[in-house]
Records
---
Amino acid sequence: MSVPDKLPGHYPGRAPAGSAARGFGDFVRAHGGNGRLVVQPRMGFSDPAAMRAGLAATRASAARTVGTITLDAHTRVGHLQAAAAALREGTALNGYPVVTHPPATTARVLDGIQGPGFPVQVRHGSARPVGIFRALAALGLDASEGGPVSYCLPYGRTPLAESVTQWAAACELFASLRETGREPHLETFGGCMLGQLCPPSLLVALSVLEALFFLRHGIRSLSVSYAQQTHPEQDAEAIAALRRLCAELLPTDDWHVVVYTYMGVFPQTEHGARRLLESSAELAVRTGAERLIVKTVAESQRIPTIQENVDALELAAAAAESAARTAPAPLHPADSPTYQQAAALVHAVLDLHPDLSQALLRAFRRGYLDVPYCLHPDNRGLTRSFIDPAGRLCWASIGNLPIGHLVRPRSTSRLTSAALLTDLTRVRNHFDAPAPPALATSHRPPARDARKRWAAG
C-alpha cells in the first residue's frame, strides 16, 4: 500500500507544533510521573501505510502516548538483503525495515504525526546497531533504546566485545544529532534482561550500568527500564532502588523511569491479560514511573492488531488514572536488600576499570555480572534464581557475583526442570485464575469520557 501525503484527523490532548518540549525525554518528563503516566505500545509493521495507521491510532487514542516504530528481525541482525527481498516480494515482516525503506517513504509515514506533541521512539533489538542509528540520524528520528549488554546476551551469539564497540560508536553517532538542534534520547533495556527470572537487583544494576555507558559516550537524555516481575512489593522496592542509584550516579537530571508490563510467559485468557496489564499500570503509578510499555490481550496468541494495541493503551491509562486516585504514597526504603545488592554490583563493576567498556567485559569474564539461564558464550552461567512461596524472585546460586556478603543463596537441589517450568508459568497461572469480584470489573472508563479528559489535559 502507498502512504498518503497527509493523514486527516484531530489528535486530542496534544501540544501544538512549536511547543516547549525539545524531545522525547522532555515530553515524557512533562507528562509523566507524580500520578500521571505516558503509555506506549511495541508495534511495528513492514507496510508503510500500516505503520502510519498504527502511529496515527496511537496518537489519537484516549491516553497520553508516545509512538513506536519497532524494526523487523532481518534489520536487527543486519540481513538487509533479506529485508529488501521481502519488500520486493510483498512478504510481510515482523517490523518496519527502516534501513531498507527509502528515506522519503519513512518521512511520509511520519509527516503530520510525529512532532513536539507526539514523539516517536524506534525499537530494534540489535547488538550491531551502527547502521540502524545512521539511518535514524538521517531521518531526524531522535529516540531509541537498547544497550551493549541487554541487546547482545539474550538474542544471539554476537561477541560481547563486538557489541560494546558497536554500541559505543552508535551512541557517539546518535549524540551528533545535537548539532542539528535535537536532543537524542536513549532508553536502557538492561532492566528487562531475559524478560523473567532475572532477580531485580541484577536488572537494576544492568539498567544503571547501561545508562552510565550511554552518558560516557555522549548521550545526555535517557530513560532507565525495569520489567515487572513476580511480586508487586519486590518490584516497587526495585524501582525505588533504581531511582536512588540513578540519583546518586547519573550526572544529569534528564532521565526518567520506564516500566514494562510483564515480559515472560503471558496469560492466555482475556481477563488474565487485562488484570496483568492493569497491575503493571498500578505498579508504575505507585512507584512514580513516568512511562509504561504495554502488552495486549492477544500477546500469548499472535501479533496484536492496531486496535488491540489501542485497547491496551486505553486500558493502561484508565488503570493508571484509577490508581492515582487510590494508591498510597510510594515508599522509598533507604536501604532495601535490592538497593544494597544492586549498588554492590554496580560499584564492583565500576572499580574494575576506568573505561566502562573494559569494565563491562571484565565483569562478565570474572562473573561479577552473570545472568541466570542465559546461554550466551560470554555469560558464565553460574547463577540461578527461583520464586519463593511468597512469590518473590530470589537467588538460588550467585556464582561469582560480588554480593556474597548480602545474599544467602538457597540450596540448588530444587532446581529441576519441573520446578523451572512451574516458575516460568507462575505469573500466567496466577492471572489466568478466576478473578476475585474486586478484580472482575475493568478499570477502563467509557472511551468517550476518557477522550474528553485527555483532550482537556
Note: Residues 265 and 424 are 7 Å apart (CA to CA).
---
Amino acid sequence: MTTTTEQLSATTLLRFATAGSVDDGKSTLVGRLLHDSKSVLADQLEAVEHASRNRGQEAPDLALLTDGLRAEREQGITIDVAYRYFATPRRRFILADTPGHVQYTRNMVTGASTAELAVVLVDARNGVVEQTRRHAAVAALLRVPHVVLAVNKMDLVDYAEPVFAAIAEEFTAYAASLGVPEITAIPISALAGDNVVEPSAHMDWYGGPTVLEHLETVPVSHDLTACHARFPVQYVIRPQTAEHPDYRGYAGQIAAGAFRVGEAVTVLPSGRTSTISAIDALGESVDIAWAPQSVTLRLADDIDISRGDLIAPSGDAPATTQDVEATVCHVADQPLRVGHRVLLKHTTRTVKAIVKDIPSRLTLDDLSQHPAPGQLVANDIGRVVVRTAEPLALDAYADSRRTGSFLLIDPADGTTLSAGMAGASFAATATKDAEAADDDAEWDF
C-alpha cells in the first residue's frame, strides 16, 4: 500500500495567491479551503472556535485560520502575507493570502511574485472595483500564467446568474486586454461553502469546476526546465585536501533550464568559455541536472569564477548590460528618487548602481501613465532606468521570472527599496490589443 509520503512525492506542487478588495472574503475563502479539504488540525479549529466565541460569533470565523496578527484580528482585515501549506491526494499547495488594502499593494506583489495562479475575489454586490483592476494589473505585470475570478458572496445576491455573468464578462475583458493568458470565473460563497470544495446546490446553472477542483487540475505551465538554462554561482568549493588536491567546483541552485556534462558554457560577465566536465549532486556524479536542483558544476578549464557570476550555455547566453530598464514596484516607505545610489541584487550578484531616470509612474486604475514623476513612493509601480557599476547578465522578465527579476536595496541599512522586472511591462499581446483599440495608447510606459 502506498504511503502518504510516497503519494505526496508523486503529486505536483502549485503555488497560488489570493487577492481582491477589502472585505471581499479572501481569508474566509482560504479558511474554507483548508477546513473543507480536511487540512486543519483539531487544535487549530478549536482555537478558531474559541476566538470566535470571544468575539460574540456563533459560527467559527474561518478567516482567523490565516489572519494571525493581533492587529489583523482586531480590525478584521489582512495586513501581512500569510502563507499556508496544504495538500490533497491530487496536488500539494503553497498558498499566499495577500491583503486587499491599497496601502498593502506591495504585499500582494510579494505573494504573487512566485505564484503560478492568482485567485482574484470580487464581492458579487459590488462587482469589479478599482482594487480589482489593480490586482489584475499586478498579476499581469508579474506574468502570473493563470487567473481565477472568484465571484464571492453569491448568497447575498440570491445566487443570481445574471449578476455573475456581468461581473465575469467585465473582468475577463479587462484582464485579457492586459495579456493575462488564462482566466477562469467561478461563482462562490466562501461563508456558506458553495463551489469552494463542494459543488453548490443553489447554482445549478453553473456547470464548471469548484475552486479546489480547478486548483487540482490546472496545468502548472511555468516549467523552469523549459526556460533558458541559467546557473548563478553561489559558492566556490576548493577543499585543497590530500583527498581532493585539484578539486574546483562551483555550487549553486540552477535557476532555470538544464545542464549536461560535455556542454559548452560561457561564464558571465567575463565572457570566458569552457566545457562542463562533471556535475555533482547529493555527493554523486550525474550526467544531467535541471532546475531547481542544487548542484556543483566542474569545468574543464581553470577560470576565475566567483560568487555572483552566471554560467549559461554558450549558444544561449544572455547579453550583459550596465543600463537596466525595468518596471519596479516600490515597497519601502522612503521614496525612490532620480540620482539615488542603491545596490542592485540579481540572483547571487550584488552591484552598486544609481537611479538615472524614472520615466513614468503607472496608474493602475486605468493603466494610464504619469510621465516624469521624479520619484516613486510606497506601493507605486513605475518604469526606471538604472546604471550599474558592473555588467549584469539579465534576462527579460517575460522570458524568465527567476533571472529577469532583481531588488533595489538601500546601501546604508540593507532595506529593500523596490522589486524590479527587467524588460517590457505587460505581455506583447496586451500592447498589440491596446494599439489596435486606440492608436494613441502606449502600454509599454
Note: Residues 1-10, 68-78, 428-445 have pLDDT under 50 and may be disordered.
